[in-house]
């Protein structure tokens, strides 16, 4: 991945602003109120810093998307879209690390929604997803432990961005990979340790598996 001076300037400026905001929040929380003399003040301040850093990052990224939507399509490495994506990727990665102490199976759907994903009711995520503004999780969809969903792919000197949709009640199996442009229909299942290559469409109620994923049967009856 090519990285230039502009990438360092943009990410450095954004991270500096976010650190200042998070530090100010932590100071305000730990030095005011009934807990300012508490022996747990440092712990409270640390938690406030991490939470504030993550949430301010989500707010910043949402504001950026208001003026410049997340890219979709194929672009060269030297392009405005690639620079935009690298900035979003760096900021998102740092924010997710900051929010890790607050991230559980129960809170991850909310976290993904805050960072731009479309998340249906009662979705469950044991795996991870990237490029959240391009990912759509249907109601009761499931990501198995260790699975990865990504809406970008770097090939040679090009980068591809394409939306990913995981339909209602669809399941991405343990340690499986879903690449850009993939669609899992309702009640579709991607078997464990499988790879749904770019642009794959798994119809409703079908079971696919392998690398690359191919139809191997019907999913369980509804």
What features would you describe in this structure?
The N and C termini lie far apart (44 Å). The chain is globular. It folds into 2 domains: 1-102, no CATH class; 105-222, UDP N-Acetylglucosamine Acyltransferase, domain 1 (3 Solenoid). The model has no long low-confidence stretch (mean pLDDT 92). The chain is built from 4 helices and 18 strands. The chain has helices at residues 5-31, 41-67, 80-98, 108-114, and strands at 73-76, 118-119, 124-125, 128-129, 135-137, 142-143, 148-149, 152-155, 158-161, 164-166, 171-172, 177-178, 183-184, 189-190, 195-196, 201-202, 206-209, 214-218. The protein has a 6-stranded mixed β-sheet with strand order 3-6-11-14-17-18, with no helix packed on it. It has a 5-stranded parallel β-sheet with strand order 2-5-10-13-16, covered by helices on one side. The chain is of the alpha/beta class and 222 residues long. This is Transferase.
Give, in order, the helices and strands: HHEHHEEEEEEEEEEEEEEEEE
Strand content: 15-25%
CATH architecture of the largest domain: 3 Solenoid
Put simply, the count of helices is 4
Count of spatially separate domains: 2
Q: How big is the Rg?
A: 19 Å
Query: Based on helices, strands and strand pairing, what is the structural class?
Result: alpha/beta
Number of strands: 18
Distance between the termini: 44 Å
Task: Write the CATH homologous superfamily of the largest domain.
Answer: Hexapeptide repeat proteins
Helix content: 25-40%
Keywords: Membrane, Transmembrane, Transmembrane helix
InterPro entries: Transf_Hexapept/Carb_Anhydrase, Trimer_LpxA-like_sf
Transmembrane segments: 44-64
Protein name: Transferase
